[in-house]
Amino acid sequence: MSKISKFFKGGGSAASKGRRGPSPQEALARLRETEEMLSKKQEYLETRIERELAAARHHGTKNKRAALQALKRKKRYEKQLSQIDGTLSTIEFQREALENSHTNTEVLKNMGYAAQAMKKVHENMDLNKIDDLMQDITEQQDVAQEISDAISNRAGFGDEFDEDELMAELEELEQEELNKGMRNVRLPSVPSTSLPSHPGKLPACHFTFLVIKQCSSTRKRAEDEDEMKKLAAWAS
């Protein structure tokens, strides 16, 4: 068993046993501090690597011993840099896992609060009372619909009058109007002078006058008959 395993198995010092574990926020803050420290260490090592590489180039074959020493130091710095890269990856993974765990814990805690609130709201509710309430609401909606239907129906005012009687009265009024119109029409007068049986015995001028007068009377009569037909058609 390694020393690290023994240390964690033994629980560390006595003071650490009685102390409560860190909160997620404290652990996350420590991890971020460690990441920041290792990032600065990376920058330092990268600078030293560039410096040792420049020294090895400067000495070259003229001073092999100094050049080789510079390359050895560069190798050590590169090894440390690689270790830091691995450590940062591990810390980043641990930090993300801790953040997710903390988020899940908060989510579950809030869901627990919500469940308790729902339980508190529902503890005074009776399902039988809810069913009765919904039934009452349905009945009242039906009553309201019946009232709306009754109000929207056409009122029966004036339905006591017989439609046939009203139509007969209307026809009488139309007949009265037709009779008034016929009384106002002036019928053509019968000509006072009859046409001679032998028109050849009359003077030509007298015969022509009688024919014109008779034609005018006939045309007037035809116009009056047309007017009567129009009035009869309008009355029907």
From TrEMBL:
Has UniProt tagged this entry with the keyword Nucleotide-binding? no
Region annotated Disordered, chain positions: 1-25
Give any Gene Ontology cellular component: cytoplasmic side of plasma membrane
One Pfam family name from the record? Snf7
Please list the GO biological process terms of this entry. Answer: late endosome to vacuole transport via multivesicular body sorting pathway; protein transport; vesicle budding from membrane
Please give, as recorded in its UniProt entry, the membrane topology of this protein. Peripheral membrane protein
Q: Where in the cell is it found?
A: Cytoplasm, Cytosol; Late endosome membrane
Q: Which domain of life is it from?
A: Eukaryota
The keyword Kinase belongs to this UniProt entry's keyword annotation: no
Which keywords appear in this protein's UniProt record, sorted alphabetically? Coiled coil, Cytoplasm, Endosome, Membrane, Protein transport, Transport
Q: What PANTHER family does this protein map onto?
A: CHARGED MULTIVESICULAR BODY PROTEIN, CHARGED MULTIVESICULAR BODY PROTEIN 4C
Provide the family line. Belongs to the SNF7 family.
* Protein name as catalogued: CHM4C protein
The species is: Nyctiprogne leucopyga
